Amino acid sequence: MQLIKVCSIFFIICAWGSINTVHSTDNVELEVICTNSTLNKSIDKAAQIAYYKVQDYFDDFQQLGKITIKVVESDKEFYDYMGDGFPDWGVGVALPDENAIVMKSPDLYNYPHEFDEVLTHEMGHLLLHQKLNGADIPRWFDEGFAQMVSTSWSLQQMTTMTLAVWGNNIIPLDHLETVNQFDQAKAKLAYTESFSTVLYIYQKAGKTGFNKFLETIHLNSDFERGFYAATGYTIKKFSELWQNDIKNKYHWAFLINDPRFIYFIMLALFLLALVVKLIKKYKLKRELEETHYHSNYEPPLENGGPTIINPKKW
Fold first, then answer.
1. How does DSSP classify residue 197?
2. What is the DSSP string of 90-127?
3. CA distances, 173 to each of 23, 37, 248 (Å)
4. How far apart are CA 232 and CA 223, in angstroms?
5. Which tens digit of pLDDT belongs to each residue from 235-286?
6. Which member of 28, 91, 110, 113 has the lowest number of beta carbons within 10 Å of its beta carbon?
């Protein structure tokens, strides 16, 4: 990414109990609205990092208007923005039509991931929609891109995919449109699948090819038509090819050959051996204590004499 000299201008004003921070640079304007002044500053910094992290995936990106990040402190306020149908496991949402992101306060809610990662994920949604400028983006691509820019493909994702392939639980891409209706476990698989598909495209095409792919979709003003023009495949055919690819790739042998998995297994075996050793040591100690007690015990004398616990002391 070409380095851009940042000239920050901060305007902090109090309005309706909230603090607004407007951050301006050569080509970005970010507004953070939060009632907590300390949190406001950290989110403003995280928003700048998130913006440039996502922008790095694009060529010649031009921001379209100010991006607003609103931090809310109640479920009611959050769902006032969202309306019905938003999952209870959600903590943040991008609103492309409003060029805004709404986040639950990290001071009041438990996040399933780091706050910065969630913010970058939502920023990915916004900038992708700006890049494609009106194209109807399918949910699998929208979520997959947001995952790709906000996190790395890890052993956890590989394990999720392997278990899904092993259990024949892969969700067809077109079914991911209703991900908001999934429970948290199924949603985790859906997001991992989305990540897998977009990462597959990005790695095959490279950054330049991926941007040409996005530009073709933008010029066609229709995702499916642009996808076919860029790849030569319909989305349905691509989905079939992708499923065949992951079924061949993600199996137990794949995990066993991964050094990270081997390290994890070795660590697990070491901890298991340590626990077994401690249990044996504890049992042995108890046995020795009981043996010592019984070997030194003698019943009271019949004539009422003293009870001799340790004859050697007499």
1. H
2. --EEEEGGGTEEEEE-TTTS--SS-HHHHHHHHHHHHH
3. 38, 42, 18
4. 13
5. 999 998 888 888 888 865 555 555 655 666 777 787 888 888 888 888 887 7
6. 110
Structure tokens at 233: 């495949």
**Distance from C-alpha of 298 to C-alpha of 314, rounded to nearest angstrom:** 14
Tokens 């697990």 -> residue: 268
Domain residues of the chain, as ranges?
Answer: 8-133, 135-257
Look at domain 8-133 and name its CATH class: alpha beta
Q: In what order do the strands lie in the sheet with 92-95?
A: 10-15, 18-24, 29-34, 67-72, 100-104, 92-95
How many other CB atoms are found less than 10 A from the CB of residue 226? 20
Q: Tokens 């042998």, residue?
A: 253
Residue-level pLDDT at 304: 55
Of all residues in the chain, what percent are helix, strand and coil, respectively (each to 5)? 60, 10, 30
pLDDT of residue 13: 27
Least confident of 3-12, 25-34, 44-53: 3-12
Handedness of CA 201, 202, 204, 210 (dihedral sign): positive
Higher pLDDT, 286 or 207: 207
C-beta of residue 179 within 8 angstroms of C-beta of residue 190: yes
**Contact 227/236 with Cβ under 8 angstroms?**
no
CA dist., res. 256 & res. 262, Å (int)? 6
Q: Which pair of tokens denotes residue 22?
A: 């407007």
